[in-house]
Amino acid sequence: MPIAIICSGGDCAGMNPAIKKFVDYAYEKKIQPYFIYDGLEGLIDNSIEPAIYEDVSGIIHDGGTMIRSSRSKRFFKHKYRKQAYENLKNNDIDKVIVLGGDGSFRAFEQFYKDFKIDFVGIPSTIDNDIFGTDYCLGVDTALNIIRKSIDEVRDTSASFKRACVVETMGRDCGYLALVSAITSGAEICIIPELEYDLDSLGKKLKKQLKNGRRYIVAVVAEGSKRTKMVVKWLENEIKIETRATILGHIQRGGNPTVFDRMMATEFVKNAMDKLITGQDIDLVVVYKNSKFDFVSIDYINSQKYMIKDSLLEMAENLAK
Ligand code: F6P
């Protein structure tokens, strides 16, 4: 019973430890593991190869994904999905582990409807924006990269009595910015999920600056599209020299943290056990209330991910 693994969409730290566990566990269970290289594009173009132990030696600490990834427009068309299916069939593969985000799961949901290719999705995105799971692979590493960057930018801001505006990734979701603002002791947090009030924020900050505050840290989520506005406001209204740092893709790389390596291992083991023992599977393995569980792809795609109110409340005073 061969099983293949694919990475699709934005990569994240933790994918390589997941790939290593996949190969090691497959051999333990006497299953032939396959790599689908280059994401859905590679699936269409038949970049499918058997995996051996040597492929995954020395990769556990590497960021990114050794089998690479892609965002595919072609996969939306039935004729390319059919081609992808033929490629799997020619290798006798009818089970796939998918590391990706909700867009990738949606693509595999359609693939399952078309050709009954069993799959288990593993939520893998630094955005942490997948409904039904509390955690997505790569988030802890991204948060630690942001934490380190804010610590560093704070040093130079304090030396100059400046404000720094740090923009984090997350697409439409403010999770990375929110957690980073709370854990970095930021003065300002602007995310799509929280209403902000510049008048009241401004009054607080001016008072603090008068009382000796030496710097201001503002964390802004890319999804809020407010980075430039916050820089201008700090300069013009708060009258503090301001610099912006857009962290960008550095948040997607880096050596996976211990937590992400453990999560990768457990996500993959759960996904493999499900695929080995079951059939007619179109599921996503989720981590909810500190437990691993499986939910249907319909359930994952049925609702939009919302950040918990209790977490949002912790940053309300950084937006008002
Ligand atoms: O979904 C992951 C993510 O890094 C988002 O945070 C970001 O908006 C987007 O991907 C960037 O995409 P790309 O790598 O295609 O520029």
Tell me briefly what this model is:
The protein is an alpha/beta fold and 320 residues long. It is 41% helix and 18% strand.
Write a structural description.
With about 325 residues, the protein is α/β, with parallel strands linked by helices. The protein folds into two domains: about 5-140 and about 255-300, Rossmann fold (3-Layer(aba) Sandwich); about 140-255, Phosphofructokinase domain (Rossmann fold, 3-Layer(aba) Sandwich), CATH 3.40.50.460. It contains eleven helices and eleven strands. The strands form two sheets. The protein has a seven-stranded mixed beta sheet with strand order 3-2-1-4-5-10-11, sandwiched between helices. A four-stranded parallel beta sheet has the order 7-8-6-9, sandwiched between helices. The radius of gyration is 22 Å and the shape is elongated. The model has no long low-confidence stretch (mean pLDDT about 95). Bound molecules: 6-O-phosphono-beta-D-fructofuranose (F6P).
Task: Quickly give the structural class.
Answer: alpha/beta
The number of domains is 2
Question: What is the CATH class name of the largest domain?
Answer: Alpha Beta
Task: Give the CATH topology of the largest domain.
Answer: Rossmann fold
CATH architecture title of the largest domain: 3-Layer(aba) Sandwich
What order do the SSEs take from the amino end to the carboxyl end, as H and E?
EHEHEHEHEHEHEHEHEHEEHH
First-to-last CA distance:
57 Å
Beta-strand content estimate:
15-25%
Report mean pLDDT, rounded to a whole number: 97
Basic shape = elongated
